[in-house]
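Q: Protein A?
A:
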Amino acid sequence: MKALQSLRGMAFLTAVSLAAEIGSFRRLGSPMQLMAYLGLVPREYSSGQLIRRGKLTKAGNSHARRLFVEAAWSCRHRPAVKGELSERLSGTDSEMQAISWKAQNRLHTSSPDEAYPVDPIHE
């Protein structure tokens, strides 16, 4: 639960709901399997050498997908560790804090060149 709550947009209620919907994250072998379970992968129309990808499949667990999408909306803001997130991160180890910061940067920026290099937790 602490690992989920260390991410921006994932407060207690969202983390508990995701844990209840997904169960064990270990049963999903990779992040791609999680995204497929949530229906967050593109449709594919393939024929011979031609591969076309379309809109999201939206197959899978719609409640868990909605929780992830709603949490992702908080990443539209500039990466920062303050307020409620700062309180949630205060009791976690430095590795989890680093993952949280990396996730904020990755979800906020469209390219690695735009990333915010300063980690406010380890200044």
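Q: Protein B?
A:
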Amino acid sequence: MSMDQIYDIAVLALVAVTALLLGISTALKYYTEKMVAEGKTVPHQVVSAQEAADALYSEANKLLDFTGAQKKAWGTEQLQKQNPGLTKEVAAGLIQKSYDTAHASDNQETSDSEETTQPIGFLDNGDDSNGSDKA
């Protein structure tokens, strides 16, 4: 196969995937507009408060340059905005649970890796690759 043929196949595959995704998007838009026109409710993804707390804590950990307390406060505020029915105490508890879970898994990984690692030694005279006594 020549480079032109590979390029043409790649472009055709890209066009086919784009057309498929555009068709799916159009069908979903039509479906939701039809549901709204008929007065029916459009189904939404249901996310539990704990899943939202885990996602918010992960986002705060990756994106924000805050201390731990500031990350928890930010996560609590965002969780309350997403779920207005939650009290501040419940939201703070969910964020704290996410924090504890994340740190427990971090500690678990570090303890496992410490058991399997070997200390690094330094070369002394006579430790070269050919076995001679000259360094």
